[in-house]
């Protein structure tokens, strides 16, 4: 698996990144370490974590993932692993993470990085990401910007400016605690502001954006891909299997074991009316061409020109093996044209 350079960094990452958000809830530490060992053996050098993992986030489990990864990482050659982490922002009601957190201010970002470094038993994180914007934006199943959310009790809500966020991250870069920065669940305006302000004030430049992208959520293509191209920013695509919907398992058995049936009410973007019909159509397309639905869904994301690395996750070794093996699947022009037809029929059903 040939490594890819991340623009404006000296990082070279595998085109597949191992996601860890099931570690500590659906996966035990032994299972987590088995997955990590297998991924490294297959040529993956990119590991994605977050302080709030595992998901769904809960007070009794948060930080477990980082602890498990740290117990594995201390036995690895640190310079061979590209480790990404994330600081949780406000606005999601996670009151047990640093008391809210109320904002992405200097104190909160610093507290988050210090905690992550300690749990993961490392001196630095290669790519540190803001898990979601502090400001009012549609995210995690929301799809419309709502200006009324800008106000509370008739007053404009305040949020830590992008410049101040970048200044804190710049301090951490200077101190060697992080090497590069990224965004997650970001919108085009936000990415452009981070880039503009970084240029204007000589602050760290955003290297990547980690957003949802899959066959039934192609919102990245509505404005963001032009920014990625013109500004040379990489996409780290998460949820390429759409919470398991694109594996076909819920089409075959609506009560199949998985996050959809285990965590009722979670992942609202996949509760939309056309998610089922679109997932069934893509599964049928895959099977007509002798592919599994998983192979089709992953190969599509793996081969998109704007994807720097695709974040995969699994709860079993069988799933992980299939997900990594799908890297070898190539989609023919005929299949790609059929995907276009289905996309036009079921346009972005899980925004």
TrEMBL record:
The keyword Iron does not apply. Residues 15-341 form the NADP-dependent oxidoreductase domain. It comes from the Bacteria. Pfam families: Aldo_ket_red. GO terms for molecular function: oxidoreductase activity. Keywords: NADP, Oxidoreductase. This is Protein tas. The lineage of its organism: Bacteria, Pseudomonadati, Pseudomonadota, Betaproteobacteria, Nitrosomonadales.
